[in-house]
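hiii so um. not sure if this is the right channel but i have a protein structure encoded as tokens and i wanna go backwards to a sequence. like what aa goes where. can anyone help
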């Protein structure tokens, strides 16, 4: 029996068992089952990946069952295992297994732990179904599965109105993207007569130059299909225009953020584009759209990230920006580089999110970085883990010597964009370079605000609550009002002689169940780029046809001018210098800069006003239209002439008929006589 069956279905089985157990048994039972299942899946996934990495494995399809046959539409439920799948398997199962383990400490006091762990496992199963799909319908099944699971996890603390609103927002925004994805699938079946991915990719080159009628025009068939499919990717991977759900997803528990932002939902769009890369290569206009949207998202999210104060939102916008890198890499034809950045990003982004959760845990669920400071000595293990993640995301390294994970993957993307040589690819290169500078700035800004400087804890309401009420306050056990769990009572006891700015609060390091995942992910953030760079970027044999591989582009990538190779490092150092100057050297600079930049700062801080734009463009008109249907249609027409109208006639008729019901015999005799006279008159005349 192929190990892929266990890899995919063990999380589903664990989710079902954990969900049914719920509160009927101690929570440790559900936690053990789900976590154990994910670690088994992870242990089975790595040998599959290593087999492809070493060249010992070949692509295979493992049938599960016959799914559907209706006329010309026929497809089976089968699991495709090739290099692209193997890469995603290790990303998904590794991060998910570590998130499960991390959640043992983070969610320790939550009363609904079995439900939470069941949702995590369900999420993982849905993503595994997506990446092992052999046909578009099966991919759509996994696609919608991660959408459902994200709704459940983002809204896990359903007693919080903000969590419910965020879950609904994620669900609705993704429905917009999914409409495009569905139309793309329908169109693909119409054109190719099949939903089998291998058959579609084999036939795609023959459709180059073909046209189709669309919205009254003759347009390139493959461009239309690929743009529709990409709209689906824009929703799932939070690209500009359909990105608004991603920052609000922070309302879910921090482990959820790590899973969504690093290994599952947001990577689905990138995976789909790379899986269908031979199809996209026949659609130059669509590739231009992918490149532009990716580059625009990259710079947009980076600008917003520089102004946010919530530690999780900074990392969330960082995710959005890094996804933009992946998409414009795919848009210029460097699909290997896109997948390489997806691979390295999974390690350092999961590390940063879980590290942020450890900080929040230590700071009594305070998320505002303005109330941090001087934490590196209080929580040293968390500090070094987040340092590794920061060095990775900012791309620290020495050319031809050694670099952290992002040094290799991000540089490869910028070099590929420059090597492509088109106008749109050069636009992507410069946007990516500026975004790299901003990434360095906001990443080091986060580190300096959190771990350096003087303590600013005393100004936090959360810290004051911890100091004055301790851990035994009943609110600490209400998941609707807290973001973390597992606090130690000792850190909330004020000391008679405490350092200024601390308020007598004593942060403490996270439990071992939270620190072990941080340590493992740190290894990936440090070494993943160096170890796998050759296979992902140069490995035509490694990919073995699972993605489109442009050897000419890769050759040009390695021969770009030397200044291009140094661009990412140069801008990284500039971002670091600015952050150091503003948050270490002279801490008055940020306030002065915000005041002087005024409208620009507010524009970035308010996320380019996308939420406000959508509010007035879609929500207000929708509410107005709904009120018109309600007042004029429902109440004014249906109720008035329907139930209410009939009821009025019956009521008034009853009032009239009641007058004949006097109870006197002579009244009834008179009515009978009049009726008899009327009947005789009608018969005779």
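sure thing!! here u go:
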């Amino acid at each position: 029996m192929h190990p892929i069956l266990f890899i995919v279905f063990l999380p589903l089985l664990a989710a079902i068992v954990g969900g049914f157990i719920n509160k009927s048994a101690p929570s440790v039972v559900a936690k053990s089952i789900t976590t154990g299942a994910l670690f088994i899946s992870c242990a089975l996934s790595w040998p599959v990946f290593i087999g492809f990495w070493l060249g010992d494995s070949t692509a295979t399809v493992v049938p599960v069952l016959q799914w559907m046959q209706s006329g010309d539409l026929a497809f089976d439920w089968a699991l495709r295992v090739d290099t692209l799948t193997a890469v995603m398997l290790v990303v998904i199962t590794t991060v998910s297994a570590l998130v499960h383990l991390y959640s043992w400490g983070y969610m320790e006091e939550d009363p609904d732990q079995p439900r939470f762990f069941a949702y995590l496992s369900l999420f993982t199963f849905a993503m595994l179904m997506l990446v092992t799909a052999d046909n578009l319908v099966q991919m759509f099944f996994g696609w919608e599965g991660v959408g459902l699971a994200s709704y459940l996890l983002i809204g896990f603390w359903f007693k919080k109105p903000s969590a419910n609103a965020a879950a609904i927002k994620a669900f609705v925004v993704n429905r917009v993207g999914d409409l495009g994805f569905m139309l793309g699938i329908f169109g693909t079946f119409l054109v190719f007569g099949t939903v089998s991915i291998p058959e579609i990719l084999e036939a795609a080159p023959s459709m180059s130059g073909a046209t189709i009628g669309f919205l009254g025009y003759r347009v390139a068939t493959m461009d239309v299909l690929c743009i529709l499919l990409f709209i689906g990717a824009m929703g799932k991977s939070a690209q500009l225009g359909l990105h608004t759900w991603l920052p609000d997803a922070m309302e879910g528990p921090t482990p959820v953020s790590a899973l969504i932002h690093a290994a599952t939902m947001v990577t689905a769009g990138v995976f789909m584009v790379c899986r269908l890369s031979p199809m996209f290569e026949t659609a130059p206009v669509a590739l231009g759209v992918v490149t532009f949207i990716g580059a625009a998202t990259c710079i947009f999210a980076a600008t917003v990230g520089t102004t946010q104060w919530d530690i999780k939102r900074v990392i969330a916008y960082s995710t959005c920006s890094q996804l933009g890198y992946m998409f414009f890499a795919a848009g210029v034809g460097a699909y290997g580089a896109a997948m390489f950045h997806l691979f390295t990003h999974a390690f350092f982004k999961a590390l940063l999110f879980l590290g942020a959760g450890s900080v929040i845990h230590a700071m009594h669920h305070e998320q505002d970085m303005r109330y941090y400071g001087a934490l590196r000595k209080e929580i040293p293990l968390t500090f070094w883990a987040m340092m590794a993640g920061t060095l990775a995301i900012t791309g620290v390294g020495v050319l031809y010597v050694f670099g952290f994970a992002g040094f290799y993957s991000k540089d490869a993307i910028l070099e590929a964009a420059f090597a492509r040589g088109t106008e749109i690819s050069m636009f992507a290169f410069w946007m990516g370079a500026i975004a790299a500078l901003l990434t360095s700035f906001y990443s080091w800004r986060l580190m300096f605000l959190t771990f350096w400087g003087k303590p600013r804890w005393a100004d936090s309401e959360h810290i004051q609550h911890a100091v004055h009420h301790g851990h035994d306050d009943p609110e600490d056990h209400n998941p609707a009002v807290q973001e973390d769990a597992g606090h130690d009572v000792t850190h909330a006891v004020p000391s008679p002689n405490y350092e200024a700015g601390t308020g007598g609060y004593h942060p403490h390091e996270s439990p071992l169940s939270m620190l072990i995942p941080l340590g493992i992910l740190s290894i990936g953030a440090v070494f993943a780029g160096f170890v796998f760079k050759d296979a992902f970027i140069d490995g035509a044999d490694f990919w073995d046809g699972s993605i489109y591989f442009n050897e000419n582009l890769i050759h040009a990538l390695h021969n770009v001018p030397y200044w291009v190779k140094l661009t990412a490092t140069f801008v990284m150092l500039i971002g670091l210098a600015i952050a150091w100057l503003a948050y270490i050297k002279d801490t008055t600079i940020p306030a002065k800069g915000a005041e002087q930049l005024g409208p620009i700062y507010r524009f970035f801080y308010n996320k380019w006003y996308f939420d406000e734009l959508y509010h007035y463009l879609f929500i207000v008109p929708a509410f107005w239209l709904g009120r018109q249907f309600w007042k004029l249609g429902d109440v004014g027409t249906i109720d008035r002439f329907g139930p209410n109208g009939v009821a009025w006639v019956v009521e008034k008729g009853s009032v009239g008929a009641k007058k004949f019901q006097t109870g006197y015999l002579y009244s009834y005799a008179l009515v009978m006589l009049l009726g008899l006279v009327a009947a005789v008159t009608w018969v005779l005349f």
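oh and Residues 11 and 124 are 7 Å apart (CA to CA).
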